[in-house]
Design a protein that fits this description.
The chain is built from 6 helices and no strands. The chain is mainly α. The protein starts with a helix and ends with a helix.
Length: about 160
């Protein structure tokens, strides 16, 4: 593909992200990106909190904090590679991921707390791991439409698109 054709394709894709609707594929990719950072933080927080015997509320707070840290870090890694200074990269990450991470965390922590005994189960118990995996899967399914709506309005992951 020559440069002009590639540029036209990029402009077409860019327009599609900012048009009246975003594709489900684009939304799913954005949600999967968010899920990766969230899952790293969520799992790490749940493992640390459970292993350390922290109260359930402290474990949830730790998981949420780490999910935001890792979610933002993954986005920043990509935009820093594109040449943005750290301060601008942080602004892009905050704009791109805050709503998605917040929705995902609300859902997956609600599931973890809502499954009887899941958050109290030890790290060696299947209930803990099955509940955690299920909570992340439910969060992915329910966050994808949110991301699709946001991308279709030039918000959320659409902010990062300029740096891909």
């Amino acid at each position: 593909m020559d440069h002009t054709a590639h540029q036209h394709q990029h402009e077409h894709e860019h327009h599609a992200h900012h048009g009246s609707g975003a594709s489900w594929r684009t939304a799913a990719q954005a949600t999967l990106h968010c899920l990766t950072g969230c899952a790293i933080g969520e799992i790490l927080g749940m493992v640390i909190g459970t292993a350390a015997g922290l109260h359930n509320a402290a474990t949830v707070v730790l998981s949420i904090a780490l999910a935001f840290v890792f979610g933002y870090a993954l986005t920043m890694r990509g935009v820093l590679r594109a040449g943005l200074p750290v301060r601008q990269a942080l602004k892009v990450a905050l704009a791109a991921d805050t709503v998605s991470i917040a929705v995902m965390e609300l859902i997956d922590n609600t599931v973890m707390v809502g499954v009887p005994g899941a958050i109290d189960a030890g790290l060696s118990q299947a209930l803990f791991w099955v509940s955690l995996a299920a909570s992340l899967a439910v969060a992915f399914v329910l966050t994808t439409p949110v991301n699709r709506w946001m991308i279709g309005r030039g918000k959320g992951h659409a902010v990062v698109h300029a740096y891909h």
